[in-house]
Amino acid sequence: MSLEIPEKALQWQKKAREIADKYVRPLAQKYDRLQEYNWEATKIVAQEGLLGCFIPEEYGGADGSVLSLCLVVEELAKADSGYGVAFAVNALGSFPLLVGGTEEQKKKYLPQIASGEKLCAFCLSEKFAGSDAGGLKCRGEENDDGSWTLKGEKKWTTNGGVADIYTVFAVTDPTSRSRRISAFIVEKGTDGFTIGKSEDKMGIRCVPVVETHFDGVKLSNDQLLGGRAGLGFKHSMMTLDLARPGVAAQAVGAAQGALDLAMVYANRRRQFGKPISSFQMVQALLADMATQTEAARWLVYAAAAAADRREPNVTKRAAMAKCFATDTAVKVATDAVQVFGGYGFMEDYPIAKFYRDSKILQIYEGTNQIQRLVIARNLIKEASQLTHLDAFIPEETQDLYGATGIEFSDDDNITSTEKTRA
Question: Are 326 and 334 in contact (CB under 8 A)?
Fold first, then answer.
């Protein structure tokens, strides 16, 4: 496939880098310790239009590009992985509107999100339904007048509390397998909607992650995403196809940020009369970190470009990018701590935060174990396009020379040709 980054996307990247250097990196340690949201950076991000980079112009955004989103997220995460999450999850909460909203819903909410007037959050996971999105218990019950009542709670709502708009997934038809779930648009301040426990996290501490509670929340039919019930699971999967490159971009930014710090420190730190960057073992660490980060970067860009083109294999590409890039972020952060040595373990050095922040990347928006299953299942489907290779793989037969009384079970790894010949 060809991959050319549009000039507009590069402009977004440059603008994000400037904001990251001025408003994100200098405040990263402060908000990590306080466990508070960086409103200062968000105010500037909104003023500069970055919150609309992934929203089409017709809905108040810019170019509606997942690739632009990834370039922006990468720059912000390079300065502070936690803030990269805070920015990217705004897109995660918005994508259900983009892929499944009615025209009226898009025109009402997306311009508010693009301008930064309102932030968005995504409510899918529950205490007992993480990777198993089909196991949701939160209920949406239709009333006689066509309105809906939402009952239940959600876990790990990122940006919960600071967000104004929430896309919430709930069971509306428990008897159905394919049409079981629907999505709703819930606004902050709605009666019965409250923020519950705020999580005390190991990393990404500047972005709030909370429980969200829906105690008989009354919603009009206009707040049913897409105006039809039963499309929630489809909308959630389409959303994740578009959002996972953004998570992968967070990982690339985190990896690059850790690598940059490790390179600077390796040149400054002296042992045995010379900088440790002159030692071959340190050089090998840096070389591997750089190579893996660059490989992850272009895998992410390719997945984002595929998402923008709505290619049929975007699910596999998004899963591959998310899996590889987030594994890379954890490895690079770990090796960066090793370069820093004992100082890397100290919280007054910035690399410790990169290490703490990186782990969650392998978990949220689909664990990497789930990503590998998604990739493998798509590969197995694609194998049907490779039947022309059958002729090049020898097929063995086994002659039993008239032996009788042998039965074959379905578990036996024996072809129909072998059974016939026996």
Answer: no
Q: What is the pLDDT of residue 407?
A: 63
Q: 249 with 78: CB under 8 angstroms?
A: no
Three-state secondary structure call for residue 43: helix
Q: Which residues belong to the active site?
A: 365
**Within the chain, which residues score under 50 in pLDDT?**
416-422
pLDDT of residue 421: 44
**Domain 237-382, CATH:** 1.20.140.10
Tokens for 358? 């990186």
Burial 249-275 (b: 16+ CB within 10 A, else e): bbbbbbbbbbbebbbebbeeeeeeeee
Q: Measuring CA to CA, which residue among 243, 421, 279 is closest to residue 235?
A: 243
Instruction: Name residue 225's amino acid.
Output: L
Cα→Cα distances 327→78, 213, 361, Å: 16, 33, 8
- The predicted pLDDT at position 420 comes to 46
For residue 362, give both structure tokens: 């392998």
| Domain parsing of the chain, residue ranges | 237-382
- Collapse the DSSP code of 398 into the 3-class scheme (helix H, G, I; strand E, B; otherwise coil) and give the result: coil
Four-CA torsion 38, 39, 43, 45, nearest 10 degrees = 20
Q: Which residue has the tokens 């990404």?
A: 204
